[in-house]
Every structure is written in C-alpha cells, then in structure tokens.
Amino acid sequence: MNTIDIDRILSQFEIIGQVQSVAPLGEGLINDTYRVATAGDQAPDYVLQRINNAVFQDVDLLQHNIEVVTAHIRRKLEAAGTDDVERKVLQLVKARDGKTYYRDDEGRYWRVTVFIPDSFTHQAVTPQSAFDAGKAFGQFEQMLVDVPEQLGETIPDFHNMELRMRQLREAAQRDAVGRLDAVRGIIDELERDADWMCQAERLYREGKLPKRICHCDTKVNNMLFDSQGRVLCVIDLDTVMPSFIFSDYGDFLRTGANLTTEDDPDESHVGFNAEIFKSFTTGYLESALSFLTPIEVEHLPYAVALFPFMQCVRFLADYINGDTYYKVKYATHNLDRARNQLALYRDVRRHDAMMADFINKLL
Ligand code: GN1
Ligand code: MG
C-alpha cells in the first residue's frame, strides 16, 4: 500500500491534523492495521484498518455492532463517573458520508478509530495484569448484559465447536493441497476428545446454557494497557456477539496462560501457567460472579481446555486447506500453531482437578 493510496483513503474520514506518517501496527492475523501519526499535539493520532471482508462479510452489520457496543460502554462509564473515559473505550471516526467505514473503488473496506495515547499492547501478562484483565472482561460482559439492541453474529457460529470439527473433517476429506498425511496423528488425537469438547452446544440445545454478548477474541494482545501496566480497555471488537461466556474466559487463558506464544514451534516451551490461571480467574469471578449461572461457573475449567483445542482445530483446518484464512509467515506456520495449541491443551487437561478445586474455593 503506497502513501498516495493511504492519503486518499484517509481523506474520506473526518480526521483532524496533518498526517505525518503511516506505519503497520500490531500482530492481528485477520485485518491490516496501521498507526497514523499526525503533526503537533493538537490533533490525535489514529488507527486505520482495512477490514478483511472475506472473513467479515457483512461490514454493515459488523460496524453497527461496534457502534452500538462502544456507545453503550461509553454511556455506562460516564454514568459511573469513570475518569479518563476517552482512553477506556474506542472512538470511531466517521467517514464523510456519516458511516463508520469507507468502501474504496476496489471494493476494500476501511475504518478509522482515534489512537489512545500512552497505550500499549503486550504479548504476555504478569499475575497482576492477569487479575486486572479478568476483572475487566467480567466488567465488559456485565456492561453488555443490557445492550439496547439484539446484536448479530458477525461470523455466524464463530465459536461453535461442532461446526469447527465439521470444518476440520471437511478439510481432511478434500485434502486440497496434499497435506493430510502429515497430520493424521493430530486429527486422531483431536477426534478422541471431540465429543467431550462439543458439550457446550449440547447444553445450549437442552436450554441449560445461555448465550450472552461476549468479546470472543480476548487474546492478550487485544487489550490496551497504560504505561504502568494497568488495563485501559479491550480492543478488536469485530467479534463482539452472542456466545457462551466460555469464549472470553477461555480465550484469554489460551494466550495469557501459555508459557510461550501461540506460534512457538518448540513444543517443549509450551505449558499451562497455573499462577496466571489463578489470578485471572480471581479477577474474573470478582466481577462476573454476580451474573454467572452455576452451570457456567462449573464449566470454567472446561472452557480453559476448549480454546486451545478449538484453536488447534482451526489452525489445523487452515493448514490442510492451504492457508486461506490466517496470515502466515512460512509454509508450516499454521501447523506449528496447531501443534503448539495441542500441547497446551494436553497440559491444561493435567490441571483439570486443580482448576475445579481452585474455583470451588473462590465461591
Ligand atoms: C484471530 O484478528 P486476531 O488476530 O485478533 C482470530 C481469532 C483467533 C486468533 C488466533 C476473526 O484474531 O479467532 O483466536 O486470530 N479472529 C478471527 O490468534 O478469526
Ligand atoms: Mg487483534
């Protein structure tokens, strides 16, 4: 993407100040993100994103969800007298036509938010920031219990484990690029636990498990921290939609409590960090216990296992399909990620009893 293009895109939005530089930002695997720096102290910096509309096919619905959610959170923070609200919720910048996105001549979709000053993302957490993050996600879900509109699913059945298993089986059946032979062992291992992992969908069908508005992409690097390491807010709101609370609780621990990054190719580095589990869970239950049902609480250890398992299934399916979904940097990147997540899943399962015990003591 050259500067001319970016300038032309930015000129479609109601931004103030003189654009000084545009540089790639963050580690997202789906959208392309840039930081737009402006000259002087008067104008804010901005975040420009190209929305991946192969993944998010209904951009209108996507942006509508984000508008509703950010406005709702802003009202709640203001009503609670929170200081520094501007740094605690994302602010969308309108395009010239009043929409919160712009479709360019080539059919690419763009959006702009105000960059939150002195904010940082991290790939790892300390016990203290895990506790804060737990509390923040519980509060996030709590603020959204009375969101004034029904939100649509920006990716239908996003965290539906039955669907993810079906997609893996279909990928294996097609074997589009001849990678199946190398991964049969992993598939067999996943199949052994697949039925257990799909229990949330069954509980939902039986009317025993609710869906609530969740963030659904709570990995560590989707959270902004200030320079002292305190949580500011949750970003990357594309996947905010109705789901099981397991999504937010489990996906945070999938990244936060892994002893290494999700794509570390050396499995011996992978492991479940029990200390992070404990601090995150303590924070989460402090804010979420007021609205969680007993069946949700009882299944939290299941949620910790579900997300590395599901992510393994998704990375592996993408590997078999020839890397059509996630950004990859080398040929076996998705395979390394899948192996990493499977190793994490195994280690989480070694902690089943500890997790249940710990949660019971908190109640
Ligand atoms: C994607 O966009 P990003 O990188 O924050 C993905 C998540 C996965 C994650 C794995 C819309 O998140 O579901 O958990 O990669 N988002 C989508 O790192 O598929
Ligand atoms: Mg992200």
The number of distinct helices, counting runs of at least 4 residues, comes to: 12
Stretches where pLDDT is under 50 for at least 5 consecutive residues are none
Elements, N to C (H/E) = HEEEHEEEHHHHEEEEHHHHHH
Strand content: 5-15%
Mean pLDDT: 95
Q: What is the strand tally?
A: 10
Largest sheet: 6 strands, antiparallel
What level of helicity do the residues show? 40-55%
Q: Characterize the overall form.
A: globular
| Distance linking N and C termini | 52 Å
Oligomeric state of the chains? single chain
| Class from helix and strand fractions | alpha+beta
Radius of gyration: 20 Å
Q: Give the cofactors and ligands.
A: 2-acetamido-2-deoxy-1-O-phosphono-alpha-D-glucopyranose, magnesium ion
Give a brief outline of the structure.
This protein has twelve helices and ten strands. By secondary structure, it is an alpha+beta fold. Strands 1, 2, 3, 4, 5 and 6 form a six-stranded antiparallel beta sheet that branches. A two-stranded antiparallel ribbon has the order 7-10. A two-stranded antiparallel sheet has the order 8-9.
Note down, in words, how this protein is organized.
With 363 residues, the chain is of the alpha+beta class. Helix content is 45%, strand content 12%. The protein contains 12 helices and 10 strands. It has helices at 3-10, 59-79, 127-143, 161-174, 184-197, 199-205, 246-256, 274-288, 294-298, 300-321, 333-349, 352-362; strands at residues 19-24, 32-38, 46-51, 92-93, 102-103, 109-114, 212-214, 223-225, 231-234, 241-243. Strands 1, 2, 3, 4, 5 and 6 form a 6-stranded antiparallel sheet that branches. Strands 7-10 form a two-stranded antiparallel ribbon. Strand 2 and strand 3 (46-51) form a beta hairpin. Helix 4 (161-174) runs parallel beside helix 10 (300-321), helix 7 crosses helix 10 (300-321) and helix 10 (300-321) runs antiparallel to helix 11. The radius of gyration is 20 Å and the shape is globular. The model has no long low-confidence stretch (mean pLDDT 95). It binds 2-acetamido-2-deoxy-1-O-phosphono-alpha-D-glucopyranose (GN1) and magnesium ion. 2-acetamido-2-deoxy-1-O-phosphono-alpha-D-glucopyranose binds at residues 28-30, 55, 217, 219, 222, 236, 239, 262, 311.
